[in-house]
Every structure is written in C-alpha cells, then in structure tokens.
Amino acid sequence: MEFAYEVEVLHLLVSPAHAYFGRARDGAADVPSEDAEHIEVVAGKGIVGDRFFGKAAHMDAALTVLAVEGLEAMAAELGVAPFDPLLTRRNVILRGAELPPLLGADFALRQGGAAVQLHAGRQAHPCAWMDRMLAPGAHAAMRGRGGIRCRPISGGTLRRGPATLLSPVELDPAAAGTARVLRPSRLP
C-alpha cells in the first residue's frame, strides 16, 4: 500500500563546501550556498554541486530532508523570532511532512509526472553549531526534529513548490513539528 501526502518544497540548499566545522565560537566558514529554484539529484551520488555529491563516506546520507514545522515549533518554544531554515544546512526543506516514520523506508517526492525516490537511512542529528547559528538552546530543541538523511535511489529534478510525498507507511502531517527521538534497539 502506498500513501500520498501533499507537501510543499520551500527551500533547496546546495553548497559546494562545509560551513560548520571546528569550534562554533570561531564562526562559520564563508562558503557559497544557494537556495536553488531546482536541484538535480543523481541516484547513489546525491545533489549535483553539493558538498556530499559522490563522496563514498556520505552515500547513505547524501541528501537531507527537514520539516519546517519543527523549526517553527522550536522558535516558539525558545521564544525567539522564526529561524532561517537555510542555517540548518539541510538540503530539502518541506512543509506538511512527518518524517521520522520514514526511517528505514523508501519514499518518493513527486512533482508533475516524475518522482525522485529516496531511502531514509537515519535521523539528521543536530550539531552544537545550532546554538550559535539559530539561538541558544536550539541544539537541544532540534533533537528529534533535525530531519532525515537519505540516499537517492533514483535521479531527477526537485523544484520549489507543490509536491506529493509517496510513503509506504501512514504519516500524520499534523505531527511534522513534533520531536521524536528514535533510539536504536539494543536487541540483535
């Protein structure tokens, strides 16, 4: 069975280099980043022009997806102005998608007649940089809503705008901003 959810692709981040490394107190690197109108995804490699494209160590996590509702909930909880989603350095920012139930599953984002298939491998855990780049306390607040790291199964183009998320599991779009920390089982 396949479930379909109407979502909106708000942002598509492409950056050829890492911006957050070293100590946060030293500041982020000044690297070019683009909020692209569209991105080209290549199966097994990632996003053309992005820092993780074709890197063997990142094949299973070459593309990150984030629900903007999580950032909105965090800002409200911390009592601060809305965050710039691009500061999270996630590649695909969606509205209307509950992401944690997709972990371990294959899903797709369809726009028009074409779909980009992804495998949701693991949570995209936040780093301490979030306290500096978003707001004090953002690192802890982002746990469980930092998005998912994905491996592209099929290639194609993703564009900003309406899309359909095709999921093998039932999702609750109203829970998109809810923190869910999924811990790996200790059982064999």
Short description:
By secondary structure, this protein is mainly beta.
Please tell me the overall pLDDT: 86
Shape: globular
Q: Strands of the biggest beta sheet: in what spatial order?
A: 1-6-5-9-8-7-11
The helix content, as a percent range, equals 10-25%
Outline the biggest β-sheet. 7 strands, mixed, barrel
The CA-CA distance between the termini, in Å, is 28 Å
Structural class based on helices, strands and sheet pairing: mainly beta
> Could you name the ranges where pLDDT drops below 50 across 5 or more consecutive residues?
none
Backbone CA Rg = 16 Å
**Proportion of beta-strand residues:** 25-35%
Number of helices: 3
Tally of strands: 11
Q: Give the H and E element order.
A: EEEEEHEEEHHEEE
How is this structure best described in words?
It is a single chain. This protein is mostly beta strands and 188 residues long. It is built from 3 helices and 11 strands. The chain has helices spanning 68-78, 129-133, 138-141, and strands at 3-14, 34-35, 38-42, 46-47, 63-67, 92-95, 106-111, 114-123, 148-152, 156-159, 161-167. It has a 7-stranded mixed β-barrel with strand order 1-6-5-9-8-7-11. β7 (106-111) and β8 (114-123) form a beta hairpin. It is globular, with a radius of gyration of 16 Å. It starts with a strand and ends in a 21-residue tail after the last strand. The model has no long low-confidence stretch (mean pLDDT 86).
